[in-house]
């Protein structure tokens, strides 16, 4: 258990800490299998209990900022799925550690450092949510049932307890951040924080805003923009698009089953898109490329589980076609190694086979749209960053542009390119409404998990935005 400096904690927070401290643990990880020597970062892992009698034990990875942990912002990072481990974001996207995929031979992978980690400018908590995800578990069968609303409350409780256990970070600027399906949870958790602060709950969190990457907000908007996006990207011809637009009245997702004209118009479009990798339209479509079948509600998108048995392709197939899927095999081998689990302080017997994304969760998607959450925040003084890889057809950039316009804000900085190393890294648009600021960003050439494809550009984006500088 990490040392707690009691004289930093106001009395009400101390009382809460004593009440909440059951079911929590934290450990500093100084070495990891696959990395030679002592880690050059401060990595902490632990569990925090939420739910009735702390029945649900949420596992987390916390990495301190390499810059100035005391003053740099704190990010709670919510990976998508639901059911995808925070480890996936840590090692493949925004964390300081990565795997040596080039020399991976199926044995324990070597760990290398990510020069473009977001922890260069921020402290980040990566959470495995809900129970059944990554190393998170429950002591009861009931604890494995979850939903959008339950997850939002559980993640908020997690953060309250985490801050009480880490009082030195209570005053740091706080941002809730996430991607993909986590984009739905981000404003929901931020709303829990807002309501908790307004109710005077301790600790009072220094919420500054939130960050969403290629996230889900409203399926009626987000899913419906896929076909217009495919047309804009020259994946379907004008004739197909115009016929579908008229026949379906612009409503392509979940069309009326009695509208035969619409169904017939969509058929050739689906045939055109069937072999496209929706997560990154320029890359090969591999059978097991995706984080979760049916994620974002397009059931022909993904076929089967991306378990390690399928990830290591035969040599002849590897030679014939590169697949990003092979990258994900490294985390399965690493995270299931007993020496790794011991180094991470995983409680023995709490999980079976670790998977990057758990597809057998009992999870109810009971919050269809979170657009109203964004509308509430737009009336208050927060800063929001919405970014999208512009080659993602799962959550195309056109969706956020549409729902952002519905917030009735004023354009503060019109559509323009932003640059990294003298090259266009994407395009940006800034909105303002009283003290509320929203920055929309496209990341040129990036797919569904933008930092995975364009790490240098995404770090530059985050650093400038957090520094309140124009992109």
TrEMBL record:
> Would you say which domain of life the source belongs to?
Eukaryota
Under PROSITE patterns, the record lists:
CARBOXYPEPT_SER_HIS (PS00560), CARBOXYPEPT_SER_SER (PS00131)
| An example Gene Ontology CC term for this record | extracellular region
Q: Which Pfam families match?
A: Peptidase_S10
Instruction: Quote the SUPFAM superfamilies the UniProt record gives.
Output: alpha/beta-Hydrolases
State the signal peptide span: 1-25
Q: List the subcellular locations.
A: Secreted
- What family is this protein classified in? Belongs to the peptidase S10 family.
Its protein name is: Carboxypeptidase
Q: Which organism is it from?
A: Fraxinus pennsylvanica
């Amino acid at each position: 258990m990490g040392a707690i400096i009691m004289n930093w904690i106001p009395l009400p927070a101390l009382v809460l800490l004593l009440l909440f401290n059951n079911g929590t643990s934290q450990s500093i990880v100084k070495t990891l299998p696959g990395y030679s020597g002592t880690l050059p970062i401060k990595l902490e892992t632990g569990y925090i209990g939420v739910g009735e009698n702390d029945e649900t034990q949420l596992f987390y990875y916390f990495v301190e900022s390499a810059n100035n942990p005391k003053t740099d912002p704190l990010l709670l990072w919510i990976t998508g799925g639901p059911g995808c481990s925070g480890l996936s974001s840590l090692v493949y996207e925004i964390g300081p550690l990565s795997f040596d995929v080039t020399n991976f031979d199926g044995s324990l992978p070597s760990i290398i450092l990510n020069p473009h980690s977001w922890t260069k400018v921020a402290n980040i908590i990566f959470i495995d949510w809900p129970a059944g995800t990554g190393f998170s578990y429950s002591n009861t069968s009931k604890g494995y049932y979850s939903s959008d609303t339950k997850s939002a409350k559980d993640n908020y409780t997690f953060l309250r307890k985490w801050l009480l256990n880490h009082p030195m970070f209570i005053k740091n600027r706080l941002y809730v951040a996430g991607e993909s399906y986590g984009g739905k949870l981000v404003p929901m958790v931020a709303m829990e924080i807002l309501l908790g602060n307004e109710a005077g709950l301790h600790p009072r969190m220094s919420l500054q805003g939130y960050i969403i990457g290629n996230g889900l907000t409203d399926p009626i908007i987000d899913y419906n923009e896929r076909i217009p996006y495919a047309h804009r990207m020259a994946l379907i011809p004008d004739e197909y698009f115009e016929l579908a637009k008229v026949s379906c009245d612009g409503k392509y997702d979940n069309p009326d089953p009695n509208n035969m004209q619409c169904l017939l118009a969509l058929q050739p479009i689906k045939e055109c898109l069937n072999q496209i990798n929706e997560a990154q339209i320029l890359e090969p479509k591999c059978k097991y490329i995706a984080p979760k079948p049916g994620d974002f509600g397009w059931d022909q998108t993904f076929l089967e589980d991306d378990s390690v048995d399928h990830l290591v392709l035969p040599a002849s197939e590897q030679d014939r076609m590169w697949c990003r899927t092979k990258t994900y095999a490294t985390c399965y081998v690493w995270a299931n190694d007993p020496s790794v689990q011991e180094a991470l302080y995983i409680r023995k017997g709490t999980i079976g086979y670790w998977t990057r994304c758990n597809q057998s969760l009992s999870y109810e998607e009971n919050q269809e749209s979170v657009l109203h959450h964004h509308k509430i925040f737009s009336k208050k003084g927060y800063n929001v960053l919405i970014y999208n890889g512009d080659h993602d057809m799962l959550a195309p950039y056109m969706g956020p542009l549409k729902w952002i316009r519905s917030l009735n804000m004023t354009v503060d900085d019109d559509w323009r390119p932003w640059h990294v190393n003298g090259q266009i890294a994407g395009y940006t648009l800034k909105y303002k409404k009283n003290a509320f600021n929203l920055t929309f960003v496209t990341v040129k050439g990036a797919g569904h998990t933008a930092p995975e494809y364009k790490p240098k550009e995404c770090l530059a984006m985050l650093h400038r935005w957090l520094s309140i500088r124009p992109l």
